[in-house]
TrEMBL record:
Belongs to the aspartokinase family. It catalyses: L-aspartate + ATP = 4-phospho-L-aspartate + ADP. Residues 2-276 form the Aspartate/glutamate/uridylate kinase domain. The keyword ATP-binding applies. InterPro entries: AceGlu_kinase-like_sf (IPR036393), ACT-like_dom_sf (IPR045865), ACT_Aspartokinase (IPR054352), Asp/Glu/Uridylate_kinase (IPR001048), Asp_kin_monofn (IPR005260), Asp_kinase (IPR001341), AsparK_Bifunc_asparK/hSer_DH (IPR042199), Aspartate_kinase_CS (IPR018042). Keywords: Amino-acid biosynthesis, ATP-binding, Kinase, Nucleotide-binding, Transferase. Residues 378-434 form the Aspartokinase ACT domain. Its EC number is 2.7.2.4. GO terms for molecular function: aspartate kinase activity. The keyword Nucleotide-binding applies. This is Aspartokinase. Pathway: Amino-acid biosynthesis; L-methionine biosynthesis via de novo pathway; L-homoserine from L-aspartate: step 1/3; Amino-acid biosynthesis; L-lysine biosynthesis via DAP pathway; (S)-tetrahydrodipicolinate from L-aspartate: step 1/4; Amino-acid biosynthesis; L-threonine biosynthesis; L-threonine from L-aspartate: step 1/5.
Length: 439
């Protein structure tokens, strides 16, 4: 069985949904299709939730009506027969009635998550209606019946696998299954989600859960690029990368893939393909366990980074110092991205500033603390880049005119991370582009 996941832009217009229908009916391998919400819908739902949270019901109503109008304009171009149109109307009516009811009751976080779930419910039901009209046999697979997260919001892969396999076993002859990305149940059995962009994560979890042959992620670009196309002029799609390379890159700016979606596929060794709905025959990017290539493969950057330096003579020859520092970050559930140390100082970077003040206050009991905001991590990734002769040198040579705040090398064989002030990000990406790739 294979997984095909389509993102918001791939289902965002009626004609795109028709294209998706063509793509999922081409091959003969049984397929689970994972759909995102139509592009723009989740943002709109977030906006509705925010208006309700702020107690502004008239704004919420206005936003619900705008979204409703979007769907009322969408379905007539999607399906043609009176029967299918009536079905689509019914689906839209049901979901917007639900949203309108929320205007009358008191708002809470569980309701907000229910609101956020409407996008994927609508997209899959409308798509299923299209398949019905075209008499394409398919099974509707509600994600809320099998996707679950635990009390730490971590997906429960063994449970997901067990439930999903049991459901699939009830349909031994069917070849096409349609399910929602992003949404799930939490440990309180409420509707929840896998965070923004989480449909990729769903696809990867489903792929792992059934040990799929491949997990295809269909988006609107031709795979992962070797540099940020928004910043540098010349980039190219990467044909093949390893899970390790992809994991390093997905976190950094390369917005094409949700960072958490690598591990489930990697754990069960399911290859992931990044493909382009607009150009279905393009090669895209294949992510798998082993690749032959070595040297720098891609560069990505992440903004909004804050560097924290803790300097203390007590660190000299002491043990347990790092543990005490890390405990502070753990206490405030703040992940650390980069670390560098010297004999008397430690620098770390974070991107979640919610508890910066408390963290700073506690760290000050260990020594002097310096904080540099507005930094950017430049991440250079390549299979065994650390062992490739000249690779690291070419990275540093390219940055000769840029003040470097931190360098992290040797944490993995596949990555060199460099911290620069955000004002140098563009220059760094451009210089590296010319300095480390052969074009
Ligand atoms: N619809 C959700 C979002 O926009 C999930 C996804 O599309 O991956 O974040
Ligand atoms: Mg996405």
């Amino acid at each position: 069985m294979k997984i095909m996941k389509f993102g918001g832009t791939s289902v965002g217009r009626p004609e795109r949904m028709h294209q998706v229908k063509d793509l999922i009916t081409r091959g003969d391998e049984p397929t689970i299709v994972v759909l995102s919400a139509l592009s723009g819908t989740t943002n709109a739902l977030v906006g509705i939730g925010e208006a309700l949270a702020a107690g502004d019901k008239s704004l919420a109503k206005e936003r619900i009506d705008t979204l409703h109008a979007h769907y009322l304009a969408f379905y007539p171009a999607l399906v043609q027969t009176a029967e299918a149109r009536a079905k689509a109307e019914e689906i839209i009516k049901e979901h917007f009635e639900f949203l309108n009811i929320l205007l009358k009751i008191s708002f809470n976080e569980a309701i907000n998550r229910d609101i956020l779930a409407q996008g994927e419910l609508l997209s899959t039901k409308l798509f299923f209606t299209l398949l019905g009209e075209l008499q394409i046999p398919a099974v509707f697979l509600p994600a809320l019946d099998f996707m679950s997260i635990d009390e730490n919001s971590e997906p429960e892969l063994p449970k997901i696998s067990e439930k999903l396999k049991a459901i699939l076993a009830q349909h031994p002859k069917e070849r096409l299954f349609i399910t929602q990305g992003y949404i799930c149940k939490n440990h309180r059995n409420e509707v929840d989600n896998l965070k923004r962009g989480g449909s990729d994560y769903t696809a990867s979890l489903v792929a792992a859960a059934i040990n799929a042959s491949v997990c295809e992620i269909w988006t609107d670009i031709d795979g992962m690029h070797n540099n940020d196309p928004r910043v540098v002029d010349r980039t190219r799609p990467i044909a093949e990368m390893s899970f390790d390379e992809a994991a390093e890159l997905a976190y950094f700016g390369a917005k094409i893939l949700h960072p958490a979606s690598i591990w489930p596929a990697q754990l069960y060794n399911v290859p992931v393909k990044l493909l382009n709905t607009m150009e279905p025959t393009a090669h895209g990017t294949l992510i798998k366990a082993e690749v032959e290539t070595t040297g720098v493969k891609a560069i990505a950057a992440k903004d909004g980074i804050t560097a924290i330096k803790i300097k203390s003579s007590r660190m000299l020859l002491a043990y347990g110092f790092l543990r005490r520092i890390f405990e502070v970050f753990e206490k405030y559930k703040t992940p650390i991205d980069m670390i560098t140390t010297s004999e008397v100082a430690v620098s770390v970077t974070i991107d979640d500033l919610s508890h910066l003040e408390q963290i700073q206050a506690e760290l000050e009991s260990f020594g002097t603390v310096e904080i540099d905001r507005n930094q950017a991590i430049i991440c250079v990734v390549g299979n065994k880049v650390a062992e490739t002769k000249g690779a690291v040198q070419s990275v540093l040579d390219s940055l000769i005119n840029i003040p470097v705040r931190m360098v992290s090398f040797g944490g993995s064989k596949h990555n060199v991370s460099i911290l620069v002030d955000a004002q140098y990000k563009t220059q760094a990406l451009k210089s590296l582009n010319e300095g480390v790739f052969t074009w």
